[in-house]
Amino acid sequence: MTTICYFSGTGNSLWSAKKIAEHIGADSCELINIGIAAQKSEVIIEADAVVFVFPSYAFGPPVIVSRFARNAVFKTPYLAALVTYGSSPGGTLGLLRKILRKKGIGKMFFAGIPSVENYIALFGTPKTESIERRTAMQQKATEEAARSIIERQENRVNTFCPFSAFVSWLFSLGTKVLYKKYRLSDECCGCGVCEMICPVKAIAMIDGHPVFTAKCEHCQGCVNICPLRAIQFGRAKWGTPGYCHPEIITQDLSRDEDAQI
Length: 261
Prior knowledge:
It is built from 10 helices and 11 strands. The protein has helices spanning 12-24, 34-37, 63-71, 92-100, 120-123, 128-150, 162-178, 193-197, 221-225, 250-253; strands spanning 2-6, 29-33, 44-46, 49-55, 73-75, 78-85, 107-114, 183-184, 203-206, 209-212, 231-232.
């Protein structure tokens, strides 16, 4: 059995996780949403192989991914960590390896998977040609990573990445206040889609409208997926077109707690 642990806001990492499961064999794979699993008091994963698939946030792993890697117990001889990224992953894999090397896992493999830049609050909505080009790159890199995992390849990544560690630390501090910066327009109809797809349960529906809480990981899933484009943050103004992986639908991003450990 291979356990694939993923974290995804707009579907990039989820798509790669699903494709890797297809290559390995869906019947022998279990997918776990890190956003839900990390909030449990105890997580023990026993598998022939464990695969992490997650995005890079400000040159580092999302806070909840680091917490999951630090607190979970992994009873496995092999672990692979794959990071999806838009501009650059920086030292993301090195920072994660610093955590995982304390777990006593015999073999580990690390790889980056280029994907569409989805942080529209800073970079704006990706253009169609960019989506097509980066999606093709993601597919190729995901297939290569799947082959490496099946062959149980191993490698090392540099864990000395002070600049990435500093930027990632600043970002982790920022998440404690950034959730207060989300704004709703009068177009919000209280449909609850943002609450449904939030990977960490950071959105609560109160009096028919979403309220953003300190659990927020700043994945920007809500800004991108909102069907009425009614959530604003940074350059992502009300009405700004969002991004979701072209082969992932809203229902795919919905939390299915029954499928979690």
